[in-house]
Amino acid sequence: MSPTSDGRITWSRGPWGVVTGVNRGIGFEAARQLALHGLHVVLTSRDAAKGQEAAGRLLAEVAARAWAVETHGGIHVLVNNAGVNFNKGPDNSVESAEQVFETNYYGTQQMIDAMIPLIKPSPYGARIVNVSSRLGRVNGRRNRIGDVSLRDQLFNDDCLSEQLIDEMIKKFLEQVGQGTWSSNQWPQMYMDYSVSKLAVNAYTRLMSRRLSDRPEGQKIYINCFCPGWVKTAMTGWEGNISAEEGPDTGVWLALLPCELGTNGKFFAERREISF
């Protein structure tokens, strides 16, 4: 693997990557563009009936894991794109909040847990890229959470943990069940989606710390990015960015040369932004 003049990586031994949620939109384009850069890409997509959604997700993860090991001995790149958002325009319904968290956060978490043991050692480091959103920023000016104490804990690496993230989600879902969720405590735009992406961002930082101690030759770099408001089915085709442009930053992160590698950061338009 070596960098080209424009900063991309060329791979000499045909590495393998996995992209989730590839049936349309950003996931499809991320897979296509990685393939154009020379990666062999495993495409995963849930297509189960609503009642079998959880089983379908688990089956897809297990199947992808087994296939990657048996056929190629592992992977080099994982792009976690699969996600849902049931809010459109000014709508801020939380009727599907549990499904949003199961897909956007817990699905991402489970995929990472399943795939990390399969990532092949490499002197250049393997890559995990999580598709996220600016809507999930801890301290965003327009859509931040109102709980100052929780914001401080999420920003503090010494406080950040899976338990903290799980407790935040549990508290949100409890308020949804009680009908008390509509307050200044939570993001006011696309509320359940925003909190789910806040969880993804926090987990990305947490995993970067856990993975940073891996020895040379077994490094795994994990980052997240916001593709922007992309014209896909999730946005009702109302975005201002094309599906072809949406995954650009994610593909860039997956293919950065090792000397430019970064870990536990949040990006948009190929620039680091704050959590």
TrEMBL record:
GO molecular function list: oxidoreductase activity
NADP found in the keyword field: yes
Domain of life: Eukaryota
Any coiled-coil regions, as ranges: none
Entry keyword set: NADP, Oxidoreductase
InterPro entries per the UniProt record, alphabetical: NAD(P)-bd_dom_sf (IPR036291), SDR_fam (IPR002347)
Keyword Oxidoreductase: yes
One Pfam family it belongs to: adh_short
GO cellular component, one term: membrane
Entry similarity comment: Belongs to the short-chain dehydrogenases/reductases (SDR) family.
PANTHER family on file: (+)-NEOMENTHOL DEHYDROGENASE (PTHR43490), SHORT-CHAIN DEHYDROGENASE_REDUCTASE (PTHR43490:SF99)
Protein name: (+)-neomenthol dehydrogenase-like isoform X1
